[in-house]
Amino acid sequence: MLGWYVCRYENSRAWQALMDRIAPPRVVISDGGSGFAKALAKRWPTSNHQRCLFHVFAQVRRYTTSAPKTIAGKALYELAKRLFKIQSIDDAYTWIDGLLAWREEFDDFLREMTVDENGNKRATHERLLKAEAGLLRLIRDDTLFTYLTFVDITVPTTNNRLEGGVNAQLRGMLRDHRGLSLERRLKAVYWWCYEHSPRPLSVAEILKCMPTDKTIAATYRRIMRNNRPDNILPQWGDAIVWNEFHMSTEFPIYWD
């Protein structure tokens, strides 16, 4: 555990705040979360980017399902499963050729159009096209087979070490202590991260810099205040009620 950052939403600004705390690595593996690529270009411009192959496969599976109904869907699903068997640059080129051959074989099928209930024409097999587009974008961005370009180090092809070694542990801890308030859930996460850092501070030092319930609550109030648009009504019943000041008759009705 080298660094962590608590954020309300996963976006480029949050990723940049986290990256500012960590020295740029030679290569970084990500699941393609929202805003990550933009933050990477700004904060770690010299780092190489490898997309997690399991998340790439899962994205294809989301569009094809694990039991495709069409021949084209089955072929693309099998092609996605072969991502895990690529061990060399030649294997990568063979896989890319397979994707291009898939498109050529099913081109007429993929060009079929359907008129929806609103009278608009749209691709009949839109989900397959989206799956293909996602793969082609990763190839163009050169983030699908980055791990094959390193000969002096072994680059992981997935972020399973993070998902299973950190995220799963944090979720399990919070699940076991589901009665904690939000402030104490955050503090529990802080403690876990501190304890699993390479050179954790002593308990006495941690207590000096650990956020308190009061500071965490104040931070959330500030975030809510800054993010709330000025043109919306408050949510907790402190807005003016129209009929309290506008009576339809001369006999007011005071019940809700």
TrEMBL record:
InterPro entries: IS1249_transpos, MULE_transposase_dom. It comes from the Bacteria. Pfam families: MULE. Residues 9-58 form the MULE transposase domain. NCBIfam families: transpos_IS1249. This is Transposase, Mutator family. It comes from Veillonella ratti.
